[in-house]
Amino acid sequence: MCMFCAAIPVAAATGVSLNAKQLQARRNSELSEDGAEGATQTADIEKPEIKPIMQITAGVVVLLLIGSVTYHTLTVLP
């Protein structure tokens, strides 16, 4: 298996894992915000920044697919 073909599932799994962790952190911050008592405590809680992880992951996978197709088209195996 070439490096492009091996990297596609690794990149996809990494992106999905990072996105799940981001969503979990976002949910935890919302739950702690709902459970906080008083206005002073809610001001201290920062919401985690939402990063476009799935869009970046999709871009990386597309680039790896293009690299894989190019590599397999230009490389002639014996």
What topology emerges from the helices and strands here?
Layout: H1 3-35, H2 39-44, H3 53-74
Helix pairs in contact: 1-3
Separate helix tally: 3
- Total number of distinct structural domains: 1
Helix content: over 70%
Percentage of residues in DSSP E strands: under 5%
Using the alpha-carbon principal axes, give the shape. rod-shaped
Following the backbone from N to C, one meets helices and strands in this order, namely HHH
Structural class category: mainly alpha
Distance from first to last alpha carbon: 15 Å
Task: Round the Cα radius of gyration to an integer and report it.
Answer: 20 Å
- Report the count of strand segments: 0
Q: How is the biggest beta sheet arranged?
A: none
Overall mean pLDDT stands at: 85
State the low-pLDDT regions, or none: none
What this model shows, in words?
The protein is an all-alpha fold and about 80 residues long. The chain has one domain. Helices cover about 80% and strands about 0% of the residues. It is built from 3 helices and no strands. The chain has helices at about 5-35, 40-45, 55-75. Helix 1 (about 5-35) runs antiparallel to helix 3. It is rod-shaped and about 65 Å long. The mean pLDDT is about 85.
Short description:
With 78 residues, the chain is mainly α.
